[in-house]
Amino acid sequence: MGSRVVVLTGGSSGIGRAAALAFAARGDKLVLAARGLADLEKVAADCGGDVVVVPADVSVRPQVDDLARTALDAFGRIDVWADTAAVMAYGRFENLPPHVFDQVIATDLLGPANVARAALRVFRAQGHGTLILCSSLVGHITVPFMSAYATAKWGLRALTRTLRQETRDAPDIHVCELVPGSVDTPIYASAANYAGFVGRPPPPVDSAERMGAAIVRLADRPRPELSVGPANRLVEFGFAGLPPVYDALIGPLMSRLALSRRPAPPQDGNVFASTRRVEGGPARYGRTAMGAAAAGALALSGAAALALRRGLRSR
């Protein structure tokens, strides 16, 4: 496979950074975009080769349009556009300031819409291209204390499905959705927080490098959806098939596993401005938290087995 031109929005940290390094290792030409120029330049230096950096906020449509023009001016085409830009906010819905809720939606839903609009315009003109939108397990389930993020990711899932339907007339244009589970990235600690405690990825936790490799796989062999996470399918089954059990467990599990015991004052985090943290850090869990995770998994598994047994008996 020859060298591709790849645009990465959200390329300064987490999954986007990991994907940039993975594409660079393949010899692809990169256009990296995020809000923070300094972190973008660090990633570009780590990638080496042909890398263009463009400070851009995906929630601002003209900046995304300018990014597409910059990529075309630099390389003449765009073969792959992967969007991993995202922000989060913790807290009960009623405690989230409306402007914080709205900006999470603007970044995590309207941002990918801006990206898709710009990318598809280029893909239609050149006759080919792969768009990869990074969703989340939270786009298939709901969890307390993350209403804005869940709302945006559910909307993104609908948008992605619709785009696939609308590009069926163009067999060389692909729209893909990556569905990560819990991933070790800075998004949790840098999130807006109105829950009282610093957020963290709940176990089991995957690496950003695994997600970056998954984005490269989608670019190599496009498919509608790729779910990556050891617990994804179990959690999705519990949410859809066992709602009473799921709803009873998810609140205590979120409190124990997704929020650390480190106090956090009310703050907007990086929702409105980038922060200078490129990599995640190891999330530590005490015995009580790990016991809660195991108990939750056993409860869901047991309920699933009971439901399956009852279903078989009723046939």
Mean pLDDT equals 91
Could you say how many structural domains there are in total?
A: 1
CATH class: Alpha Beta
- The CATH architecture comes to 3-Layer(aba) Sandwich
Shape: globular
Q: How many beta-strand segments? A: 13
N-to-C CA distance: 51 Å
Keywords:
single chain; 315 residues; alpha/beta; 9 helices; 17% strand; 7-stranded parallel sheet; Rossmann fold
Q: What do you see in this structure?
A:
This protein has helices at residues 14-25, 37-47, 61-75, 98-126, 147-166, 208-220, 232-241, 243-258, 287-313; strands spanning 5-9, 29-34, 51-55, 80-83, 89-90, 129-134, 173-180, 183-184, 192-193, 197-199, 206-207, 225-228, 259-263. The protein has a single domain (5-313), classed as Rossmann fold, CATH 3.40.50. The chain has a 7-stranded parallel beta sheet with strand order 3-2-1-4-6-7-12, with helices on both faces. It has a two-stranded parallel ribbon with strand order 5-9. The protein has 9 helices and 13 strands. Strand 2 (29-34), helix 2 (37-47) and strand 3 (51-55) form a beta-alpha-beta unit.
Please sum up the structure shown.
The protein is α/β, with parallel strands linked by helices and 315 residues long.
